[in-house]
Write a structure and sequence with these properties.
It is a single chain. By secondary structure, this protein is an alpha/beta fold. It contains 3 helices and 7 strands, in the order H-E-E-E-E-H-E-H-E-E. It has a 7-stranded mixed sheet.
Amino acid sequence: MERRSLIPSEAEFANWRREIDKGIKRSVRIGRVNLVITSWPKPAIIALRIMQNREGANCHFIEAVPRTAITIPEIDEPDKPWEMVVECKELTLEQVAKELPTFLYFFYPQANELPIHIYRSLKDFQKGNPIVISEFENDLVTVKTAA
């Protein structure tokens, strides 16, 4: 199984992190994290972009990868989170949504416990139609999918 994992240079990573921080600041301001799926070559990865404004500006956020798709030397440095490893053989959007709050807790604590809305496309984001919502209810993560 081939992955398209991003491995940015230090300069690219610094710029990318600034762009992500814009999205996180907006998320905190509006009270939720908005993510859009960019590719889903099932079961390899689910790539997500974080929205930076309501007009649709966005940047790459993470690639969710199943644990079975990586080897020990490939595990990324914890201060450079561009992959989120999910304990599964095949990824589903629901599994990714369930892991995202923990990922935010460790890497973006200012957005901890915000609801996470995942959209299939930019058009769905603009219409306000998330495919999945992940949020805390009574200290547990719940995942709601669109009907």
